[in-house]
Amino acid sequence: MPRYSAFAVVKNALTGHTRWREQWPDAQPKKEYDVIIVGAGGHGLGAAYYLAKEHGITNVAVIDKGWLGGGNTGRNTTIIRSNYLYDESAKLYDHALDLWDGLSQELNYNVMFSRRGVMMLAHNVHDVQSFQRHVHSNRLNGVDNRWLSAEEAKAFCPPLNISPDARYPVMGAALQMRAGTARHDAVAWGYARAAAARGVDIIQNCPVIAIRRGPDGAVTGVDTAKGFIGAKKVAVSAAGHTSVVMESAGVRMPLESFPLQALVSEPVKPVFPCVVMSNTVHAYISQSDKGELVIGSGTDQYTSYSQRGGLPLIEHTVAAICEIFPIFNRMRMLRKWGGIVDVTPDRSAIIGKTPVKNLFVNCGWGTGGFKATPGAAHTLAHTVATGEPHPINAPFTLDRFRTGRLIDEAAAAAVAH
Amino acid sequence: MLLIHCPYCDETLPELEFAYAGEAHIARPEDPSTMSDEEWRDFLFIRSNPKGPHFERWRHVHGCARFFNAVRDTVSDRFLLTYKAGEPRPDLASLEAAQ
Question: Which residue of B has its CA nearest to A311?
Answer without folding.
Answer: B1
